[in-house]
User: What shape does this take?
Amino acid sequence: MKRIAAICLTVTILVYPAAAALGQEPGIAIPAGALIQAEESGQEEGGSGSLSVRAAAPEPGIQIAAPSAVLMEASTGQVIYEKGADERRSPASVTKVMTLILIFDALESGKIKLTDEVVTSAYAKSMGGSQVFLEEGEMQTVETLIKCIVIASGNDASVAMAEYIAGSEEEFVRMMNERAAGLGMSQTHFVDCCGLTESPEHLTSARDIAIMSRELINRYPQIHNYSTIWMENITHVTKQGTKEFGLSNTNKLLKMATNFRVTGLKTGSTSIAKYCLSATAEQDGVRLIAAIMAAPDYKARFGDARTLLNYGYANCRLYQDKEGIPLPKMAVSGGVEEEVGLTYQGTFSYLCLKGEDFAAIERKLVLPESMTAPIEPGQKAGVLEYTLNGASLGQVEIVTEGAVRKAGYMDYLKKLLHAWQL
Assistant: This one.
């Protein structure tokens, strides 16, 4: 029998080129209950590791004082409410959300560390507005300066970090605008790194604030370790000696009575911008972002944010499929290996606004019978589709776990010799 198997393998080698030319591929064994079809359909990204379909924002009967606002769900990026969402306005210190993104980008890449000591320049010291009163030549760690930016909205701390990362504020602002463009923030143009400027060209929108806030909290959830601090002291060590300085959080929403947990994020106000806020909150696993721009006073911005967040939590439920359907091995034709493992690319999330029954959501695997070598790790193999009452909710990509090299003549010869030895 072993010799018969070897003879069959020899015949396979001889006829392989012809079979490949005819596009013949072996089938794949699919677990019972899995639904498979050959064609693949398009997808829409939810961002930050999740995939979902974005629905149009409803028109709830709620009243807010601010002329521009957006309420967004963080995992899907779905907009729940909007008002003047794309009107360009000055963001004041909410600008620092992008400054913080670049700081955490630099930490993630290893360019800087939390324990690095940053020297305050004369220019950074000269910043007015909200500040922590850094002195020229004063040294503070990166982590301390993050706290100064997040808690006390320190303009001097923002400029010190901008100079430390990019060499100058000008170069750092160029990086800010590049990062904003990469996030699709089409209404945004930054002129400085802290929002103190009165330039009419320093502009963004409520939608863009929500977008960059989502990027910050999804990519760097550790930001909440700082944005939830109510008060903390730092120590100034200068030529004049050592003294304590108290940081007090500018986000008063943290201490207001709410039915949800406030997690951040950033306030801002100038005479031009009026009162702005990016508020983040969490309840039962649902994370919401309320972006408020140009509220008439500081009470209105917090009141508007609370109104939007209350509305969101009263009407939203989040469906997340963290496991998916168990995936089969994918058959590989023309490779040194006969199959390759599969995995899901992210987690599927769907935001429910109409009281839908999550138990009625159906899932369907869409995979080809096989793939042809060469195969690279992370190569798209198919999708897992989600539908509710026949309507598509979205899908999550299925990709290969490993690589499979294309088989050559010597590989088939080795298989033949191995078969003869059995």
Notes: Residues 69-315 form a domain with the Beta-lactamase fold (CATH 3.40.710.10).
